[in-house]
Amino acid sequence: MMNKFFYSVVCILFIIFGACKNEAGEPSVSKKKVVEKQEKTTKTNARQEPWSEQQLLEPRDLAQIVGNSQDSLVIFSLGAGGIIPGSKDTGPSGEEQSLNNLRQELEKLPKDSDIVIYCGCCPFNNCPNVRPAFTLLNEMQFTNHQLLNLRDNIKVDWIDKGYPVAN
After folding, report:
1. What DSSP element (H or E) covers 138?
2. CATH superfamily of 53-161
């Protein structure tokens, strides 16, 4: 009786684990394939951003530009409430009405205007506002637009560094 039970268990285990192997006797989904797929997904996601690395503007560079009152730079705040001097707050562009506000402001500008957008609610990797706004700039065929590279948020990357803030 014990031999039949043992034999049955071994057969069941063989069937279960045998089904998870390919013809070469390797697991059908190897750890290597899982890692390769994760790397490919990461690379694909990185390429899907609507901006290029050259379109990221460092906060220190914008702070220098903001200090020059003769510059014709147009700055849009997408949710941080217009903290940077001279920026125009159009609201969180992750919301349709705010994105339409941005669109209306952009329609007034020449396509070669120097434009910087920023949010600052969180790192832009997680931000719900920067992608819709930057995509809109691309779709409207603007040629000189940049995203302020706020790695953490507006407080850490702008205010705490002593860069100018609006009154």
Report:
1. helix 130-139
2. Rhodanese-like domain (3.40.250.10)
User: Phi and psi (nearest 5°) for 28?
Assistant: -65, -30
* Sheet (strand 144-148) strand order: 56-57, 144-148, 114-118, 74-77, 87-89
The identity of residue 139, as a single letter, is E
Tokens 């009786």 found at? 1
Q: Enumerate the CATH 3.40.250.10 domain ranges in the chain, comma separated.
A: 53-161
Cα dihedral 160, 125, 82, 80 sign: negative
Number of CB atoms found within 10 A of residue 76's CB: 25
Q: What share of the chain is helix, strand, coil (3-state, %, to 5)?
A: 45, 15, 45
Written as six digits, the tokens of 123 are: 């790192």
The pTM (predicted TM-score) of the whole model is: 0.70
Residue 136: the pLDDT is: 97
Distance between CA atoms of 49 and 51, rounded to whole angstroms? 5
What type of residue sits at position 88? K
Question: pLDDT, tens digit, for every residue of 49-63?
Answer: 899 999 999 999 999
DSSP 8-state secondary structure symbol assigned to residue 47: H
Angle at which helices 130-139 and 96-106 pack, to 10 degrees? 40
Nearest to 87, CA basis, from 77, 95, 79, 97: 77
